[in-house]
Amino acid sequence: MPEEARRIRITGLVQGVGFRPNVWRLAQVCGVSGTVRNDSAGVLVEAWGDASALITFQQQLLTDAPPLARIDALQTSELDSPRPHDDFRIIASESGETHTGVAPDAAMCPACRADIFDPHNRRHRYPFTNCTHCGPRFSIVRGIPYDRANTSMAGFGLCPACRVEYADPTDRRFHAQPNACPACGPTLWLEDMAGHAILTTAAERDCIDAASRLLRSGRILALMGLGGVHLACDASNEAAVAELRRRKRRHQKPLAMMARDLDVIQQYCHLSEAETAVLQSKHAPIMLLEKKAQTTPALAESIAPRQRTLGFMLPYTPLHALLLADWESPLVMTSANLSEEPQCINVEETRQRMQGIADCLLLHNRPIANRVDDSVVRVIAGKPRLLRRARGYAPDPIHLPAGFADAPPLLAMGGELKNTFALVRDGQAILSQHLGDLEDARTWKEYGHTLQLYQQLFN
């Protein structure tokens, strides 16, 4: 059968999600040679092979995509050039006018969870473990294409072992831009409100164990996470919750909680299959769940006064999973801010703004480029409904009805309260993460920064 050549253009959420190594793998299986690269429009494949191999290859690109990818379109055209080499290669990214997407942050995958709890793994108890199937994306991105140099991981050079993973198309960490390990990646530390290190005891393995000890003693912890800083305390400690409310000036509004696993959540709330699926999804939002009649009245009333529901989420980063590993009860996990102000996102801001609110700080040196609050979801009539669209969902575009493809680029500014904005382009609405109430000066400043970022990322 004579050889044919095809140029295959793939658009959607196809960068930073392991798409190129997946294309490379499928090319090996189908016996196709050529190249794949990221560019400003998405992913571009140039492939040579016999007609049946190319047809199979194209079909598998659509049906066998990586877990975090979303293909919006796959277009092919004939390629009139000779085969450049006999193998299939991943080549350098190319820049230009941006038409690709930026993947949302994704909850820790099972393989990375296994790594951090395996005493023989070099990432044992490493709180910044990730791969192409999970971890930070939007919260660390500063530009397009989504390469390490355009993220807040640019300042962390890869050690030899991580570099081997990063360069190996068969490894699940191939071109995982936040890839790191204890030898070369971000670090975590625990300090008091005067900036002094809090030492671990002889029985504690690291500062995560020390933070857990302080939480059990009723302390309020400011914890720097994925898209911002949380305030945490023992949800079963009524005095600690009351003190957190007093300091945060959040006197009546419900507080979100994080639980180690579904078994802990089921002690307090009813869980349907649909709710379980959303909790365990890559989005890992706060789920509003109907509380059980036997739920401890003191906990229910201190966490969510006069409410029928409680807001729960599961650990979505290695840090959260390690902190909650030994907890049979939930932790309050609410944004680190005074009521109506935006969440803290950097070390110095947290040290300053959390004075008089937190008792201790669990901080790290991986910069948060973009503040992304936790999303909130409720299942209504059997379907998940987004009440607050942020981490895990933004900035994933929303496809608009027929006719919008020809609309000019639009900006929808959103309202003053609970603000988001949207960019409309290419038949899609690119909706920002939840930003908050614009009457607050810090939120207004964040609004301007985020709008500028989206205009840059999406051209």
UniProtKB/TrEMBL annotation:
One of the record's GO molecular function terms: ligase activity
Gene transcribed to yield this protein: hypF
PANTHER family with a match to the protein in the record: CARBAMOYLTRANSFERASE (PTHR42959), CARBAMOYLTRANSFERASE HYPF (PTHR42959:SF1)
A Pfam family of this chain: Acylphosphatase
Pathway: Protein modification; [NiFe] hydrogenase maturation
Name under which the protein is recorded: acylphosphatase
Active-site residues, record numbering mapped to chain: R20, N38
Signal peptide start and end residues: none
